[in-house]
C-alpha cells in the first residue's frame, strides 16, 4: 500500500483504515503525562496545522499546546482550546505542515562549523565564482581571523594563475590563504603577505618561489617551501574559533529544521583521541553553561577512551542539561568506498587485488566493545563494506552472549553495502542502522565503477529491506561530508535518483514519506536513547518542532521548494 497517497486523502480516512494498529479510537481528548487537565494554561498553542507527530498512538493532528517547553496536549483544536488562557500565545498555522524537530543521527558539528568559514574551491571554473566564494566566506568571519580554504585548479578556467588583487577588495579585514588542489602552491591576499612580512625585497627561500610581477612585486602566489612563509603565521584552531564554529553550525542546523544532533566529533582513524574530549570540555561545556547551546547534542567519544566516559557518566549522568547528553563510544571497522578502503568480500573492480581494509583489529575491537558494554555505554561502529558489516554484527552477537541481557541498542554507522542476508541480521539482533541517504547521491556512480553494476545494484543502501526486517533505521547526514538537510535527505530516501540518473537506484529500496520522517525523528531518538525527551510530538516531550512552507503532503514531496519556515526548540522559536 502506498502510504503517501493514503495520507494525502483525509485524516479521517487514514484513521479508519487501521494503518496504525495501536491507534486509540478516542484519542483526541486523552491526556497523558503528569498534568492535571483543569487549571493548566499553555504558553503556546499552535492550531489549524497539518501536524505529523511521529507518535504512533496519534500520528496526525491539527493543534498542539505547549507549556514549560514541553508538549502539553496534541489533537484537534476543540481538544486543546481550553488550554489557551491569559498570556497564551496562539499561532494559526494556516494549514502548514508541522513535523517533530529533525534528529540528525550522525554529524561532526564543530568540524562542520569550522568548514563553513573555509572556502571550498574544488570544481570552480570561473574567476567570478572564485571571487564570489571567497567573498561569501569573508562575510561569515570576524575581522582579523584567517580565511582558509582551497582546492582550486586554474586549468578549469583556462590556466591563468590567481593573484592577490583578485580577492583583496572582498577580504579587506581578513588574511587569506587558499591552497591549490595539489597542495604545491597557494594564494595569499595582500593582508596575509603583510602579516608574513613578504615584500618586494624578500628573497625566495630554498626549494620555493615567491611569484612576482615583472616589476618584482609579489603577486600573492607562493610555491612549495615559500608557502611556509605564510603557513607559519596561521594559528592553530583556537578554542574561540571552535566555539564560534559550534554556534555557527547550530544556526545552520536550525535553519534546516534540525533540533538534535548526534555528534561523532572531530574523530577519524589516526586522529588524536584528545580532540573530542577537548571539544567537550572547552566548547560544549562552555556553550552549555553560557546559554550558547541552541540545539540538543548527544556526544560520542573514541572507544579507546571508554573508561573516561564511564567515569564521567558515573559522576554526572548521561543528561548534563536539557540540551547536552553524553551518548556512547565510537570505533571504526573499515574505511570508505571512495578511497577503496571499505571492506568487502570481493575485490574492487578498479583495484582487483584489494578487498578493502580492516582498520581496527577484531580482537581489540571485541575487547573494547565488551568493556564498554559492561559499563553500560552505547557502542557505535563505523562499517561501510559488506564484510565489515558482517564482522561487526557477528562481533556484537558474541558480546551479547558474553555480557548480560540489557537494552543496549548497538549501532552500525553507515551500513552502506550489505550482503543479502545482512538486513535480517540487523533485525534479529536489534542493531541500529544509522544511515545517510544523501550519500547515495554521491556514491551511485562510483559504486558502479568500483563494485560493478551487479554488486552495486544488489546491496547498496538497503533502507526498505532493513525496515522490512524490523531493524531500527535512523537517518542522518554525516555533515560536513554531505550537507545537513533533512528535507532533501527524506526526498532522497523516497526517490533514490542520483544526479544524471533517470530512474531510482534499486527502486524496491525506496521508503515512503512517513517511514522517512520516522527515521529522522522517533527512530533516530530511540537510536541514541533520547526517546523520552525528543523524537515525537507527544505529551511530556520537549516541544521541538518544525513548520514547513507547504500545507500538503503532496507538495512536501513534489515541490523542490518546500522549505523550513520556522524551527522551535522547547517551544521557543529558534529560527528564523
Ligand atoms: C475533537 O476532539 C474531541 C475530543 O476527542 C472530539 O469529541 C471531537 O469530536 C473532535 N472534533 C473533531 C472536529 O474532530
Ligand atoms: C485555517 O487555514 C486555512 C488555510 O489553510 C484558512 O483558509 C482557514 O481560514 C484557517 N482556519 C482558521 C479557523 O483560522
Ligand atoms: C614594490 O614594487 C612595486 C613595483 O615596482 C612598487 O610599485 C611598490 O611601491 C613597491 N613596494 C614597496 C613597499 O616598495
Ligand atoms: C583481549 O582480552 C583478552 C582477555 O582479557 C586478552 O588476553 C587479550 O590480550 C586482549 N587482546 C587485545 C588485543 O587487547
UniProtKB/TrEMBL annotation:
The keyword Signal does not apply. It comes from the Eukaryota. One of its GO terms (cellular component) is perinuclear region of cytoplasm. One of its GO terms (molecular function) is hydrolase activity, acting on carbon-nitrogen (but not peptide) bonds. SUPFAM superfamilies: Composite domain of metallo-dependent hydrolases, Metallo-dependent hydrolases. Pfam families: Amidohydro_3. InterPro entries: Amidohydro_3 (IPR013108), Metal-dep_hydrolase_composite (IPR011059), Metal_Hydrolase (IPR032466), YtcJ-like (IPR033932). Keywords: Hydrolase. One of its GO terms (biological process) is response to far red light. The keyword Chaperone does not apply. Residues 89-572 form the Amidohydrolase domain. Transmembrane segments: none annotated. Signal peptide: none annotated. This is Amidohydrolase. It comes from Actinidia chinensis var. chinensis (Chinese soft-hair kiwi).
